Amino acid sequence: MPTGAPQTWHYGLVARYWAEFNDGFRPHEIPYFRQFIENDGEPALDIACGTGRLLLPYLRAGLDVEGCDVSADMIAACREKAQREGFAPSLHVQPMHELDLPRRYRTLYVCGAYGLGSTREQDAQALDVFHELLEPGGTLLLDVEVPYADSRHWKYWPAEARTTLPEPESEPEKREVAADGAEYGLRSRLLAVDPLDQSVTFEMRVEVWRGGVLEAWEVHRLDARYYFVNELRLMIERAGFRDIVVHGDHVDAAPTSDDEFVVFVARK
Ligand SMILES: C[S@@+](CC[C@H](N)C(=O)[O-])C[C@H]1O[C@@H](n2cnc3c(N)ncnc32)[C@H](O)[C@@H]1O
User: Fold this and answer.
1) Low-confidence ranges of the chain (pLDDT < 70)
2) pLDDT value at position 260?
3) pLDDT on residue 1
4) Ligand 1 atom closest to Cα of residue 53
5) Measuring from atom 16 of ligand 1, which residue has the nearest CA?
6) Is-above-0.90 flag for pTM?
């Protein structure tokens, strides 16, 4: 594994890319989390809100939702998007395992972020923090991608396969055109897989082109840790939660072996 503290790639040009192109990603997640907030779940906190893919629709629906994220760049983009629509949500730049906020919430939801850029100890600490941040009877909603969902890194769990890592530089993926005419090109590659730690490291290169000229480029790294369903259930239990239910990929039903994501629904 590369040395240095775990990190995420949601900064700089990646944050700009995310703000520009991510709103339509996995749309079924939006009504799934919303139903919990609408059902006596206010106020809510969007943990790792990114650029507001979920937060903004909830503000439009008149729901009392705040956001937080470790990346000041993602929060800045989220704030700008919210302000453009006349909203001024409370947004906090803090890592989830160190959240220190004065308010208590009826709902906490974490979408697409648990296990990113953190250590295993910090992931466990985050669950304690979530418990502290909830009102008694409040609900935690925490989703994770299961470790075997993505064959791109799952196939590297055997030692022999890992001898071919890191992956070579890939060809640029197709470029996407932003509102201001700039073209964004992304390419990512897998650097390392550590099955003992259940973690993977990706590298992403982002390029911004304008009028056929390369205007800017950045390289970022993402460390992600994967949790098996029964392992994470025990961790959530250990943090003091009760009535833990696991849902399939953002549906109100038990998961199946084919689900790539699961959601934990737990009560304080
Ligand atoms: C895949 S994006 C998801 C954003 C948003 N939840 C959504 O679903 O559109 C992951 C987000 O998690 C944030 N993040 C990663 N690690 C974090 C941590 N330890 N604490 C807080 N935020 C974190 C990143 O900055 C990024 O905005």
Assistant:
1) 1-4, 172
2) 98
3) 38
4) 9
5) 116
6) yes
Predicted pLDDT at 2: 43
pLDDT at 8: 87
If one residue of 18, 55, 71, 73 were mutated to test the ligand 1 pocket, choosing by the most ligand atoms within 8 A of its CB, it would be: 71
115 alpha carbon – ligand 1 mean position (Å): 10
Q: What is the 3-state secondary structure (H, E, C) of the chain?
A: CCCCCCCCCCCHHHHHHHHHHCCCCCCCHHHHHHHHHHCCCCCEEEECCCCCCCHHHHHHCCCCEEEEECCHHHHHHHHHHHHHCCCCCCEEECCHHHCCCCCCEEEEEECCCCCECCCHHHHHHHHHHHHHHEEEEEEEEEEEECCCCCHHHHCCCCHHHHCCCCCCCCCCCCCEECCCCCEEEEEEEEEEEECCCCEEEEEEEEEEEECCEEEEEEEEEEEEECCCHHHHHHHHHHCCCEEEEEECCCCCCCCCCCCCEEEEEEEC
Is residue 10 within 8 A of residue 50, CB to CB? The reply is yes
- Residue 4 confidence (pLDDT): 66
What confidence tens digit (pLDDT) does each residue in 88-131 have? Answer: 999 999 999 999 999 999 999 999 999 999 999 999 999 999 99
**Token representation of residue 54:** 């979920």
Q: Which residues line ligand 1 (CB under 6 A)?
A: 8, 10, 48-50, 53-54, 69-71, 74, 95-96, 111-113, 116-118
